[in-house]
Amino acid sequence: MSDIEREQRLDEQEETPHQEPGGYAPSVAERLAVYQKAGGVITPVITAILAFFMGGLVVAATGHNPFTAYKAIFNGSGLNWFFHVGSYDIGVPFSDARIWFPWNTSDSTLAKSGGLAASSLAAANLQQTLLIMTTLTLTGLAVAFAFRCGLFNIGGQGQWIVGSLMAVWVGSSWANMAKPYHVFLAVVLAALAGAAWAAIAGFLKATVGAHEVITTIMLNWIAYWAGSYLVGRDGPLQNDVDKSIPISPDVVQNAKLPVWWGNPLLQGLSIGFFIAIGMLVVFWITLNRTTLGYEVRAVGFNPEAARYGGISVARSYILAMAISGSFAGLGGAMDMLGWQYRIGVLDIQVSTIGFIGIAVALLGRNTAVGIFLASLLFAGLYVGTRSTALPDDFPPTLASNLTLMIQAIILLFVGADIIVLYVWQARRRLRPFKGRSPVMPTTGEAS
Amino acid sequence: MDVAPVLELRGITKRFPGIVANDRIDFDLRPGEVHALLGENGAGKSTLMNVLYGLYRHDEGEILVQGRPAAMHSAKDAIGHGIGMVHQHFMLIPVMTVTENMVLAAEPTRAGVLLDEGKAIERVRDLSQRFGLAVEATARVQSITVAQQQRVEILKALYRGADILILDEPTAVLTPQEARELFSIIESLKAQGKSIIFISHKLNEVLEVADRITVLRRGKLIETIGRTGATEAGLARSMVGREVLLRVEKTPAQPGEALLEVEDLRVLDERGLEAVRGISFTVRSGEIVGLAGVDGNGQTELIDALAGLRQVATGRVAVGGKDLTSASPHDHLEKGLGHIPEDRHRRGLVLEFSLAENLVLHDYADKPFSRIGWLLPRRLLAWARRLLQEFDVRGGGPQTRASALSGGNQQKVVVAREVARDPRVLLAAQPTRGLDVGAIEFVHRRLIQERDKGRAVLLVSLELEEILSLSDRILAIYEGQVVGEYGPDVSEDELGFAMAGGRRERTAAA
């Protein structure tokens, strides 16, 4: 009903543009663009707020204060690091000059003033959050890119496993290779492995029409068991040091990504973070500035029109899946070469990073900016609810369940965002009619 | 004629955000009268009827049935007040029989729960006899013709006790003959005291069937006039707000070389049945060949095959002398084929794309719009600005989403794209479907222009009038075969007869 009404309304609006002499009447199209933009930004935000609200209700129901809990999660994610405004000594040579920063610039200053201070802890937490965010961004992109081609890539998890295995294998071989080459080779081959893995699903879709949801799920399981075999007991990729542990050999020093923040031995933040941010840019440019992206979007919106336009739909499916898979494979490489340095059967079997990527893509509405924010949110939630981050009296099971719950609610709502959008528009419809809406009334809300 | 009206709408105003869809509309319906509601797409006809039928709530004004105010909160209220609506798209269940469809939700029952089938069939037969609406009561809806389905819809409304019938563009799906039968059904309904609101944007049929005509334009009531004294030109002026050329002016064709050659073409449909069964024809440069036929006689499959969008079973297609029988859609475009598809939403446009992006749907990967895989947005925008101006597309600029445009302007975008590629052969499949008078005039003039530039134009249309006014040669298609070729001055009757398969049967009998 709402769709019909909306369409009707648009039709009618178009036929009767109301113009007032002298005044600037925004065209219907312009206003529509604003509506859509507003809807596009507002709905995920409302969704997230609602999810937090409902999560808070559950916390309250268990007799805890939801505000304390959320503050603890916030601090546990390390995001409070950004709120230490003050003047700090950053060691400007030959002086005692202190400079104002919105965050604490050096842990050493605090170390001098005694022990592990709050901001240092915040820094460590933030590094964790950004580590997780790096991978989530990439697995989110893996889902989003396929989405833009009209494909639902559930296979981010399998593509991540394949990329991880490739990264570990390359990273642990050829110990004598020079560092930049080794890193480059491992990263690129991991991305290609993910691409090839996902392209299988794209190929099957393009040739025999096998649905990508089914095939990517099947490929997930193949990757899961194949990976478990490879690094498992007596598997070909198991380490030589201790045959009782089902884990891969370590990545050699030369294949590790440089860590630029924090201690490399304590899971500091590698340059993988910047690679992920760079991939957001690559994602946007590929979609919006290349003929390939044009094809992918055309097929995603309307495959029949794309075919009519002379675009090979089959080729687009295969390429879009391959590019998707390369993002997820890259995510595996960032994990393996950035901080994990090895992969065990346990890692393969308990990881859900590829699946959280689906939530990231959905909440981020398959846009680069959206994925950036959504991956930060999910990573913060994930890191912030570790029991170590929470107050002692807060039950750890509640904490981890809170994350799951918020994730689930967000997913549920994002899936049903049409409803939110509908309510958002109904609000406008109920507003009393004022002859002509003021110039671009929603601009402020949209930005 | 001062009879108390059975239905009166007084000062109906319906607003949507930023728009007044109906602005203080007065409308009345007398017993036993056909009152036509005429207007362009988006003039507010459907909104008004949806208000009447209880689907929308009006903001101001009142509805009176038999002189008493009536509140229409839902279709149920409307039905309760004796109002029945026959929608453009039928609301029938294909696998059920005519009778079952008709009595649905108001079944005669035995012992409270069991459907009394005999009684139901009896009532259906009774109704269909009384109003001269011939339908087979026990046939399944999926196996009867569109015209018969429409009769079932009308019977359904009558069965529920409707005294007022709303017919929403009822002739859009009918052949000329079927339309004429519908008009005689309307006459017999009138004779039995039923009142009818007849919604249309076709001037000739409104003049033929209506007693009074109300014209809406941009949500406002323009005039209500009797049939006597109304002319096509006058109505068109009221509808559009300016003078409209109803008949396209054109010079005789000067056909040149054969650009589109089709030989013994056979094409299968989705179910694997032969939809095009051995068609041969040529279209030469500088002429418009019209393909006339009732919907579903293989036109869609033929056009798809000619555009490379559907596989050819056997036969041969050549454009400009080059064989394209099993070439890809892309090859067809390269070899100089332009194609205005019959469904601009399904195929002609990517609605979520901007107009600039839509305008390069075929050429995005070629110069000057991209270089080694990089799109050049500025060139896209410049190109779009030029075309939008040349083709007078209103309602948005190059960055506007295609979905934000009205149907007429969307179609102009499609026409602009296809024509601007400078094709040698132009396939125009129902190029004016769903457009209003002004936009139709534009598309028609443009097609003639393209013909005069020396393109070969193949026009497929379900509108006989369109075929007759544009074509230099006319082919009639029936069940996947060309059943006749005519000059531009063939009579509507003769052509309609061939389209309905009459000609073939006659030759078979002879």
Tell me about this structure.
Chain A is 67% helix and 3% strand. Chain A is mostly helical and 447 residues long. Chain A has a domain of 280 residues: ABC transporter involved in vitamin B12 uptake, BtuC (Orthogonal Bundle). In chain A, the strands form two sheets. A two-stranded antiparallel sheet of chain A has the order 1-2. A two-stranded antiparallel sheet of chain A has the order 3-4. In chain A, strand 3 and strand 4 form a beta hairpin. In chain A, helix 2 crosses helix 17, helix 9 packs antiparallel against helix 12 and helix 9 packs antiparallel against helix 15. Chain B starts with 6 loop residues before the first strand and ends with a helix. The longest helix of chain B has 16 residues. Chain B contains 18 helices and 24 strands. In chain B, strand 7 and strand 8 form a beta hairpin.
The gist of it:
With 447 residues, chain A is mostly helical. Helices cover 67% and strands 3% of the residues of chain A. Chain A contains 18 helices and 4 strands.
- Quote the CATH topology of the largest domain in chain B: Rossmann fold
Series of H and E elements of chain A: HHHEEHHHHHEEHHHHHHHHHH
The CATH C-level name of the largest domain in chain B is: Alpha Beta
CATH class assignment of the domain at 79-84 and 120-393 in chain A: Mainly Alpha
Let me know the CATH homologous superfamily of the largest domain in chain B.
P-loop containing nucleotide triphosphate hydrolases
Write the layout of secondary structure elements.
The complex is a heterodimer of chains A (447) and B (510).
Chain A lengths: L1 H14 L12 H34 L4 H11 L9 E4 L8 E4 L5 H6 L5 H31 L7 H17 L6 H30 L3 H20 L27 E3 L7 E2 L1 H18 L1 H11 L1 H6 L4 H28 L4 H6 L2 H11 L4 H17 L11 H20 L1 H14 L12 H4 L1
Antiparallel strand pairs in A: 1-2, 3-4
Chain B lengths: L6 E10 L2 E11 L4 E5 L6 H8 L7 E6 L2 E2 L5 H6 L2 E4 L11 H6 L5 E2 L3 E2 L1 H14 L15 H14 L4 E5 L7 H16 L3 E6 L2 H7 L2 E6 L2 E7 L5 H9 L17 E11 L5 E11 L2 E6 L6 H8 L5 E8 L2 E2 L5 H6 L2 E4 L3 H5 L6 H5 L10 E2 L2 E2 L1 H14 L16 H14 L4 E5 L7 H16 L3 E6 L2 H7 L2 E6 L2 E6 L5 H8 L2 H8 L1
Parallel strand pairs in B: 3-10, 3-11, 6-9, 9-10, 15-22, 15-23, 18-21, 21-22
Antiparallel strand pairs in B: 1-2, 1-4, 4-5, 7-8, 11-12, 13-14, 13-16, 16-17, 19-20, 23-24
Helix pairs in contact in B: 14-15
